[in-house]
């Protein structure tokens, strides 16, 4: 079995892949660092497998470029980072079940806490283990999700501050609308956050790390930067919206590519795909791509395009789980096994996650996290030894699984 696996490492398992340019990722982090006011800590959000770009790889590049904290949403995401050898601070966002607390403490994670009961349980587990657990209190300033309401938070902060086994290191909240032109609610949320900080000041409660901004807030709301920002999308070279501030030279990191598995001619009136969604008007030359909605490509019908030979080839019919058909009639030079770009650049043309999102009627965040794990990740433009230094090898494995 292991020899089959090692053969697979040399031979791509399928002609479809998610390519992650770690050189660009590294450069984006450096550009963001330069753009940020000095002293502002960068928290790198690598939840959901680093937005599909590979959590361990994105985390390592973030840390190599000065990020001070990694943030994830689930305990197994934190376990994956620790198992890869990352010793940097990792914060778990959301709320924890009591059964998760012991492992959180053993892995030396930082916990987001928005409920007094979670804090009490965490305090008792930490005390019984003789450990100190770092917590950041989550305040709900208008997102209506996790956290204690800002105007009721002071009492909870004071009691958590007094709990044994807990170190109250952070206070944070989350914007519900930071990347649109209308910043009025974000400003309202910032005001609520500040009013809590004022109340804390009056009673002499100091907290080291205050944070409110995601990518949109980092770009457009400098008055809300506080001590740290939590950014996930921007380092990947994707802007949260069309209207937020641009930083020059930020480049997209992830692309999705495949090859033309079949190129063939069809006759006038021939159908293509499930549900008879496409019938040709005249002779056409079509291509079949070995990738479909089962890989995370949006399930579209006669909508959108891919890039072949540096040109746009329209998607025809309804794409299926494992295949998508395109019209190559205007690209006579296209031939079988040519490279095709579904997301990313080819020649002078680019298909952005925002384009794919528009075809499906969703947001770029959903497009990039939708690419499934059956689509192999291919990491390019990095120095392997540089990653090796950052990543302490797991004990039993000799090789680093890069792909
Ligand atoms: C996902 C998330 C972020 C990162 O948001 P981006 O827009 O990707 O930068 C920050 N904070 C919280 C609480 C999140 O859930």
Q: How is the topology of this model organized?
A:
Elements: H1 2-10, E1 16-21, H2 22-35, E2 41-45, H3 47-51, H4 55-64, E3 69-72, H5 75-83, E4 90-92, H6 101-106, E5 110-113, H7 116-129, E6 133-140, E7 148-149, H8 153-161, E8 166-172, H9 184-202, E9 209-213, H10 215-220, E10 228-231, E11 254-259, E12 262-266, E13 271-272, E14 278-279, E15 284-289, E16 305-308, E17 311-316, E18 324-327, E19 339-346, E20 349-351, H11 353-360, H12 364-370, E21 377-380, H13 384-390
Parallel strand pairs: 1-21, 2-3, 2-10, 3-4, 4-5, 5-6, 6-7, 6-8, 8-9, 9-10
Antiparallel strand pairs: 1-11, 11-19, 12-15, 13-14, 15-18, 16-17, 16-19, 17-18, 19-20
Report on this structure.
This protein is of the alpha/beta class. It has two domains: 22-236, Alpha-Beta Barrel (TIM Barrel); 254-351, Lyase, Ornithine Decarboxylase, Chain A, domain 1. Helices cover 31% and strands 24% of the residues. The chain contains 13 helices and 21 strands. The protein has helices at residues 2-10, 22-35, 47-51, 55-64, 75-83, 101-106, 116-129, 153-161, 184-202, 215-220, 353-360, 364-370, 384-390, and strands at residues 16-21, 41-45, 69-72, 90-92, 110-113, 133-140, 148-149, 166-172, 209-213, 228-231, 254-259, 262-266, 271-272, 278-279, 284-289, 305-308, 311-316, 324-327, 339-346, 349-351, 377-380. The strands form three sheets. Strands 1, 11, 12, 15, 16, 17, 18, 19, 20 and 21 form a ten-stranded mixed sheet that branches. An eight-stranded parallel beta barrel has the order 2-3-4-5-6-8-9-10, surrounded by four helices. A two-stranded antiparallel sheet has the order 13-14. Pyridoxal-5'-phosphate is lined by residues 45, 47, 93, 174, 214-216, 230-234, 240. Pyridoxal-5'-phosphate binds at residues 45, 47, 93, 174, 214-216, 230-234, 240.
């Amino acid at each position: 079995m292991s020899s089959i696996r090692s053969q697979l490492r040399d031979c791509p398992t399928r002609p479809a892949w998610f390519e992650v340019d770690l050189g660009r990722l590294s450069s984006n982090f450096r550009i963001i660092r330069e753009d940020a006011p000095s002293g502002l800590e960068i928290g790198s959000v690598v939840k959901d497998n680093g937005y599909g770009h590979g959590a361990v790889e994105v985390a390592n590049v973030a840390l190599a470029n000065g990020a001070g904290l990694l943030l994830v949403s689930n305990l197994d995401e934190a376990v994956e980072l620790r198992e890869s050898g990352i010793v940097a601070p990792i914060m778990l966002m959301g709320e924890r079940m009591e059964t998760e607390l012991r492992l959180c403490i053993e892995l030396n994670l930082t916990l987001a806490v928005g409920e007094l009961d979670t804090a009490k349980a965490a305090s008792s587990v930490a005390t019984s283990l003789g450990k100190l657990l770092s917590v950041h209190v989550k305040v709900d300033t208008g997102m209506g999700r996790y956290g204690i309401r800002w105007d009721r938070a002071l009492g909870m902060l004071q009691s958590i501050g007094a709990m044994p086994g807990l170190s109250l290191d952070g206070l944070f909240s989350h914007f519900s609308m930071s990347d649109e032109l209308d910043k009025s609610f974000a400003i309202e949320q910032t005001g609520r956050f500040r009013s809590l900080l004022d109340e804390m000041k009056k009673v002499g409660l100091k907290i080291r790390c205050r944070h409110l901004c995601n990518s949109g807030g980092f770009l457009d709301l400098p008055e809300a930067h506080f001590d740290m920002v939590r950014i996930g999308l921007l380092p990947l070279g994707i802007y949260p919206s069309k209207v937020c501030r641009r930083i020059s030279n930020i480049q997209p990191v992830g692309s999705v590519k495949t090859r033309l598995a079949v190129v063939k001619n069809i006759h006038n009136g021939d159908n293509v795909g499930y549900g008879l969604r496409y019938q040709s008007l005249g002779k056409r030359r079509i291509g079949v791509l070995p990738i479909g909605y089962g890989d995370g490509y949006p399930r579209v019908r006669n909508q959108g395009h891919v890039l072949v030979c540096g040109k746009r080839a329209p998607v025809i019919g309804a794409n299926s789980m494992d295949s998508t058909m395109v019209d190559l009639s205007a690209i006579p030079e296209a031939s079988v096994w040519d490279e095709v770009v579904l997301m990313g650049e080819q020649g002078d043309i680019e298909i952005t996650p925002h384009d794919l999102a528009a075809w499906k009627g969703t947001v770029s965040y959903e497009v990039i996290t939708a690419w499934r794990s059956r689509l192999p990740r291919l990491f390019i433009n990095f120095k392997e030894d540089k990653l090796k230094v950052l990543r302490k090898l797991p004990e039993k494995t000799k090789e680093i699984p890069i792909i």
